[in-house]
Amino acid sequence: MAAAAVAAGAAVQSATGFGFAIVAAPLVFAAVGPEEAVGLLIALSALVNVLTLVSERRRPRPVLRECAVLLACAVPGAVAGVAVLRALDPVALQVAVSLGVVATLVARRIAGGRPMPGWAGPVAGLAAGGLTTSTTTAGPPLIVYLLGRRLEPEQVRDTMPVCLLGLSLVGVVALWLTGTSGAVPDVGLVALLVPVVVAGHLAGRPLFAALVRSGRYEAVLTAVLVASVVAGLAAAVL
To answer: How many CB atoms sit inside 10 A of residue 90's CB?
Structure first.
């Protein structure tokens, strides 16, 4: 089941630019311990993001200024996230993830179609850093912020992988500096899941163009966020 969730997460992220950890995290956290799950998901997420940026025979269009702001503010959040990872049990972590996504959806609803203010970038970066090292689900605050910046779908899809790759590096450094050795994933498990990730990415790639043509890109992003809440709470209860 965890492998199926990893494949589905890779497909969703390939199609939208985010969603890998949101889809995969509930079952991966259930399959291995919280610390190892964080390390495993960071490694696999990095692979998904690299594939999005370099394997599609096109020139990516990330908004680098937004990436710089988000990543700079993610650093203190990542350190705080390690403390959360060590303090909470798996069920509490999963509930925290789901509540964070709910808060993201509410914030997006309140904002409506209005552009995000400048201060929202540092807040989104801080939250994303904390989520990277506690649950690996940094996507929701980033996606809400970028959608509020009125970017084109192609820019959102390319900016997200750059941010998430940077967050992976920030997360690894934070885990290393805090001596969180339990986050080092099993090499054999990583090797087993790499082809699963690649297959999921290839399956999801054609969906992005279809979403843009249909004008349903943002609606699908919202649906992914809602589905993540349902899956996360179900995993916590069961």
So the answer is: 16
Please state, in angstroms and as integers, the Cα–Cα distance from residue 32 to each residue in 27, 83, 109, 174, following that order.
9, 19, 35, 21
User: What length is written for the chain?
Assistant: 238
C-alpha radius of gyration, the chain, whole number: 16
Q: What is the reported pTM?
A: 0.79
Q: Which residues, at least 6 apart from 29, have a Cβ–Cβ distance to it below 8 Å?
A: 37, 90, 93, 94, 135, 235
What confidence tier does 5 reach under pLDDT thresholds 50, 70, 90? confident
Rounded CA-CA distance 188/169 in Å is 21
Among residues 191, 205, 227, 232, the alpha carbon closest in space to that of 10 is found at 205
Beta-carbon-side half-sphere exposure of residue 47 (alpha carbons within 13 Å): 22
CA distance 76 to 198: 32
Q: Maximum Cα–Cα distance for the chain, whole Å?
A: 47
Confidence class of residue 68 from pLDDT cuts 50, 70 and 90?
very high
201 close to 54: Cβ distance less than 8 angstroms: no
- Of the chain, the end-to-end C-alpha distance in Å amounts to 14
DSSP letter (8 states) at residue 116 = P
- 151: closest CA among 205, 115, 122, 105? 115
pLDDT tens-digit map of 83-141: 887 777 767 776 776 776 676 667 666 655 566 777 888 988 998 888 888 877 787 78
Tens-place pLDDT, residues 171-210? 888 888 888 888 888 888 889 999 999 999 998 888 887 8
CA–CA distances in Å: residue 163 to residues 46, 157, 159: 10, 10, 6
